[in-house]
Amino acid sequence: MTKKKILLVDDETQLVELIKMRLTREDYDVLTAYDGEEALQKARHGNPDLIILDIMLPKMDGYMICSLLKRDRRFYKIPVILFTARSQEEDIKLGKKVGADAYITKPYEAQVLLDKISELLGKG
What 8-state DSSP symbol labels residue 71? Predict the structure, then answer.
């Protein structure tokens, strides 16, 4: 069985490396991106099975990326987890409006993130 591929997008390098190590240990292939434009390009060409996406990114925010992918018939089925420090009710509502499949706030518990990934990939 092939490994599931996850695109991890955040502008905090240390956080990306930490999560990438954890996901790799869980037997996922991990692509990384550090700004919105790079994220959109890797989402469209890297064939991820799931995207973990920060909202506050340079060049293009996570809401816009999620919205663009969810409106495109080639990519709308890719599950998107918005992964952010923004925890206001309006932020969560906007996340749902742009099509996010889940919303996890930072600081986060690793097991909560892993459980949500498993659920969205049909492993849970």
Answer: T
Rounded distance between C-alpha atoms, residue 52 and residue 64, angstroms = 14
Class assignment of domain 5-120?
alpha beta
For the chain, what are the domain ranges?
5-120
> What is the Cα–Cα distance from 74 to 3, expressed in whole angstroms?
21
Phi, psi of 27 (to 5 degrees): 75, 35
Which whole-number Å values give the CA distances from 120 to 41, 70, 113, in the listed order?
22, 15, 11
What's the rounded Cα separation, in Å, for the pair 62 and 26? 25
The residues near 66 (Cβ < 8 Å, ≥ 6 apart) are 53, 80, 82, 95, 98, 99, 100
pLDDT in tens, the chain (124 residues): 689 999 999 999 999 999 999 999 999 999 999 999 999 999 999 999 999 999 999 999 999 999 999 999 999 999 999 999 999 999 999 999 999 999 999 999 999 999 999 999 997 5
CA distance linking residue 121 with residue 28, whole number of Å:
11
